[in-house]
Amino acid sequence: MPIDHAALYRLFCDSCSASPAESMNMTAQTRNRQTGFTLLELIVVLFLMTLIAGLSLALFSNRSSSAALDASARELVAMMKRARSASIVNGQVQTVIVDLDSSRYGLEGKGSKAFSKDVTVSVMLPSAEEMKSGKHLFSFDPAAGLEGKTILIAIPRRSLLIRIDPVVAARIEKIPPL
């Protein structure tokens, strides 16, 4: 059975202003026209892509050093909590060594671990004096108390304090930015 194109057109395109022949002619014209992007459109898209890539790189590089700061602080606090627990269980003094000269920390006699490159570390004495060099011992004695030293861990825009705590061994405090 032959298909009546004119009847189909009238059935589906009652509101169309062009006739079937005119609409076929318009599609042929648009097919012959070249398609693509102008140079200006390509330049704008490349500019936007470069801008987004630059901004994301700046954001992620700052986040990685911030993550290194958080990780270093958490690992040091965890080590201090392990030392405190071991001193209570074994009944012996356990010591955490923070070596500011080599930028390392660890349990005495158990090896050490390096701080991240981006992180600067200093020790605050009870007299509010800031020490940026030397080996500092944090001894956890099951019977006696703990020393009053505080460790300052920082990156250029953010700082954390690790305070020695008699109940939980150590805790992290955020320092608000200036």
End-to-end distance: 84 Å
Order of helices and strands: HHHEEEEEEEEE
Biggest sheet statistics: 5 strands, antiparallel
How would you classify the quaternary structure?
A: single chain
Q: Count of DSSP E strands?
A: 9
The proportion of strand residues reads: 25-35%
Number of helices: 3
Q: From the helix content, strand content and strand pairing, which structural class follows?
A: alpha+beta
Q: In order across it, which strands form the biggest sheet?
A: 5-4-7-8-9
Overall spatial form: elongated
Radius of gyration: 35 Å
Helix content: 40-55%
Which regions have little confidence, pLDDT < 50, spanning 5+ residues?
A: none
Mean pLDDT over the full residue set: 80
